[in-house]
Amino acid sequence: MAKSLQHSINSHRALLTDLLGNALNEYAGRILPQMDEVERLDECMRRVFSALDYCKYVYVLDAHGVQISSTVNRYGADPEARGRDRSERPYMKHMHDASIDFNLSEAYISRNKKRPSITAIQSIRDANGQRVGFLGVDYDLRELPHSEVIYEEPSQWRQIKGDPAIRSGLFAQQRVESVMDRHIDVVLSVHEALILDQGVHHFQIHFSSSRTTIWHRDDPYVYRILTNEELIDPSICLAYPRRPYFERAIVPPADVGRVLKQLKALRFADETIYLRSASLNIVNGTVGLNFSCDGSHYLSYEEFLSKGLDFWFGDNSSIASEVACAVQTLDTHRLDAEVDVLASLGCIQVNKLLYAMENGDVPERVVAFSVDERDYIYQELKAVMDVYEGGVCGL
User: Fold this and answer.
1) Residues 262 and 165 in one domain
2) Same domain for 285 and 361?
3) Whole-angstrom Cα distance, residue 27 to residue 52?
4) What is the largest CA-CA distance in the chain?
5) Which of 7, 224, 362, 373 has the largest CB neighbor count within 10 A?
6) Do 321 and 175 sit in the same domain of this protein?
7) Are residues 52 and 191 in the same domain?
8) Radius of gyration over alpha carbons of the chain, in Å?
């Protein structure tokens, strides 16, 4: 079972590396004798293309990363690609190390077709072991073999900051009583009935706009929107078939009402910091919360029920920290200078830093910064790497 999204991706990359690396190493040896004559090289590329499963394009580069063959695809060979300098493409960045024989690039969006793609690069070496060129093979991610193991959402608490503009204007607003607020007890009782007796396994309540979105076990691919007028009428339950409590649910039936009661408390606990929307999925046991400061939280129902209001609104709470961030003015000039310093360390070090921060660690390089400053640094470094690593690269 995959531990995280990145773990799932890395596992599949390992499978692809094993699948592609061995084949390309063999073909690189066949290409070497043809590299001095373009027509023979193109013919060799046609044979390589026909022998490789799943590939979209194959081509050969010289030792400097300049294309010397045509680009071969299922329709033939494109000689106009000869002379194209690919040396600075993201998929070539690791090949500047002369000791590397094979590299499978990170996924990118191809320049022409705008499709998720990946490129495998294999070094071509002469009898003395000197690198004389590269074999490049491009793949459309949709056509590669994929793992049948679906990524599983992590169960640990996740906190996601929202729109800074909303946070900065937090104290200029207060909760306005919605239609749903006036009928909250009836509305929540209807939600409990829909979950326990009518086959609904997931709901998202929008308190401020007085509506709810539900997903039913009999038709899980379609969501249904219920307005407040529908939710305050208990006869709505007649519109759905009676079903026993879902056997895949991990939330005990008795805890559904407790979750709803806690949601009500968070909605009315404070006139400035209040719950705008919330969700519950009884199958994976996740509660989702979105507050007026636009901060979102995703946590297990057990952890949610274990926290009282003091946790959410006390001086040391996570929401209080978000509110503090709302009035904090960041010294972006100082932070931008730090981002430049970190970016100069190189892609490998930056990716290690980003990976650590994504997993909740505080690397030594950023330990002196506040939570909000670290968030700013993370977002800026991520944007730099997204551009560098191939957001608009490829063929």
Assistant:
1) yes
2) no
3) 10
4) 82
5) 373
6) yes
7) no
8) 28
pLDDT score recorded for residue 323:
45
Tokens 């904090």 belong to residue: 328
pLDDT tens profile 7-40: 556 666 676 677 676 778 888 888 989 898 999 9
Which residue bears the tokens 């070094």? 123
The pLDDT, as a whole number, for residue 97 is 83
Taking the chain (395 residues) in runs of 10, the rounded mean pLDDT of each run is: 53 68 80 90 91 88 93 90 88 82 83 80 91 91 65 67 64 83 94 95 96 95 94 88 94 96 91 90 95 85 86 59 49 85 83 82 86 84 65 35
Q: State the pLDDT at residue 169.
A: 62
pLDDT value, residue 304: 92
pLDDT score, position 150:
57
If you search the block for the tokens 């990118």, which residue do you land on? 108
- Return the closest-CA partner of residue 200 out of 235, 233, 239, 243: 243
Does some domain include residue 148?
Answer: no
The residue type of 78 is: D
CA distances in angstroms from 303 to 7, 40, 92, 287, 299, listed in the order given = 25, 66, 46, 9, 7
CA distance 76 to 70: 9
Q: In the numeric block, which tokens belong to residue 284?
A: 């994976």
Question: Strand order in 296-300's β-sheet?
Answer: 158-160, 296-300, 286-291, 275-281, 200-206, 211-216, 219-227
Angstrom distance (rounded) from CA 355 to CA 383: 14
